[in-house]
Write a structure and sequence with these properties.
Elements lengths: L4 E5 L4 H12 L3 E6 L14 E5 L5 H15 L4 E4 L14 H21 L1 H7 L2 E5 L12 H21 L5 E7 L6 H4 L4 H14 L8 H13 L7 E4 L7
Parallel strand pairs: 1-2, 1-4, 2-3, 4-5, 5-6, 6-7
Helix pairs in contact: 1-8, 3-5
Bound molecules: nicotinamide-adenine-dinucleotide.
Length: about 240
């Protein structure tokens, strides 16, 4: 990844931060975007990181951040779309405002960021990695709308891969299984409920445990580095999707 330059969204926490740290360790320069600027303080220690407070649902903020990256570094070879939110709750209770917000961040945000950097990706014959989820690949009871947003990401990944292959731009996704990050607390779940959920999920996972952010980050790095894989959604989930 030496000499490569790109963006990781949601880099303030969880899988986005793990991906950004991994890519920086491999020698890339990484623009770390997050709507919560305070969470990007970790980037100050790394000269290869450029931290920017960006809400990925705001087209003006996204295009300003893309223009800033272009001005400073002159190129973008990759985009990792990790900014995302979770929503739990049965159909009878789900709040339509929360559903709109979920799709705005997970689906529209991924679109706005990839669109803003598309000219750069075409110029560099670059690569995109999106964050789908195991719940996009198998039905679950308690988070239908979140699962639908992640299924949308899986299908956008395949469609964009086909659309952009002629430009040499590759588009893949990872579909992580349950991984201990801040996403559940950010959705308003109390810690006891998060622990209960992750313990229950761990029992369903053939390899017997939840994921570690670094394991997901390594696959993101592989998908960015490989030259002849596009349009794939790779489960990184301890076997959950085949159980
Ligand atoms: N943790 C899991 O178990 C898991 C499993 C499968 C997929 N995923 C996906 O991985 C991605 C990362 O999730 P995570 O677990 O690291 O969550 P996280 O909550 O730890 O991190 C998400 C980050 O995205 C940022 N963010 C949220 N909305 C934003 C916006 N509008 N603009 C900019 N930044 C925004 C948050 O501030 C946060 O720093 C998400 O897309 C999620 O759906 C997570």
């Amino acid at each position: 990844m030496t000499d490569l330059t790109g963006v990781v969204t949601g880099a303030g926490s969880g899988l986005g931060r793990a991906a950004a740290e991994h890519l920086l360790a491999l020698g890339a320069r990484v623009a770390c975007w997050d709507r919560n600027g305070d969470t990007l303080a970790w980037t100050e220690a790394d000269p290869g990181a450029l931290s920017t407070t960006v809400d990925v649902t705001d087209p003006g903020q996204v295009s300003a951040a893309a223009a800033d990256l272009r001005r400073r570094w002159g190129r973008a070879d990759f985009v990792v779309n990790s900014a995302g939110v979770f929503l739990v709750g049965p159909l009878a209770e789900v709040d339509p405002v929360a559903v709109r917000r979920l799709f705005d961040v997970n689906v529209v945000g991924t679109t706005l960021v990839t669109q803003a950097l598309l000219p750069d990706l075409i110029a560099t014959r670059g690569a995109v990695v999106n964050l789908s989820s195991t719940v996009a690949l198998r039905a679950s009871r308690s988070n239908a709308h979140y699962a639908a947003s992640k299924a949308a990401i899986a299908q956008l990944t395949r469609c964009w891969a086909l659309e952009l292959a002629g430009h040499g731009v590759r588009v893949n996704a990872v579909a992580p299984g349950p991984t201990g990050t801040g996403i559940y607390a950010a959705a308003g779940m109390p810690q006891s409920q998060v622990d209960e959920l992750l313990t229950a999920r761990a029992r369903e996972i053939p390899l017997g445990r939840i994921g570690d952010p670094a394991e997901i980050a390594r696959w993101i790095g592989r998908l960015l580095a490989d030259d002849w894989v596009t349009g794939h959604v790779i489960p990184v989930d301890g076997g959950l999707s085949i159980a």
